[in-house]
Amino acid sequence: MPIAYWIVAALLAAFYLYAGVLKLVRSPDQLRPMMAWVDRIPLPAVRALGALEVLGALGLILPPLTGIAPGLALAAAIGFVLLQCGAVPVHLTSKDRQIGLNIALLLAAAVTVWLATTWL
Predict the structure, then answer these.
(1) Which of 26, 79, 83, 115 could form a disulfide with 5 if both were Cys (CB 3.0 to 4.6 A apart)?
(2) Which residues, 6+ apart, have CB-to-CB distance to 41 below 8 Å?
(3) Helix (H) or strand (E) run with residue 100 in it
(4) Which one, of 56, 53, 45, lies nearest residue 21 by Cα?
(5) CA separation, residue 8 to residues 3, 22, 112, 113 (Å)
(6) Angle at 59 between CA 9 and CA 115, to 5 degrees
(7) Half-sphere exposure (Cβ direction) of 45: Cα atoms closer than 13 Å
(8) Residue 88 to residue 100: CA distance in whole angstroms
């Protein structure tokens, strides 16, 4: 079970670290081609979302790796489930209406929650 956790958590962490850093450092004009919803959300909220994604990615990996507060990994995984539960309606009400990636991320985060509860 720990190997499965590390595989899924590492993939989720890599995705959210990348997406979070992009939201933190890129301008809305640079984000728009990848994220059509960026015009509907205030820039400080986009930046805050990026910071939460980076912190969540670190939360999936560092606590179990160091053994310090490993329950934070479960909290990070639950946070990503909730994040995607909010992202699906945002995408459905915008121009792109593509939620395939959101559903995949939601399922991966849910599997991570399950693995974290059985492993931690």
Answers:
(1) 115
(2) 49, 90
(3) helix 100-119
(4) 53
(5) 9, 21, 6, 10
(6) 40
(7) 6
(8) 9
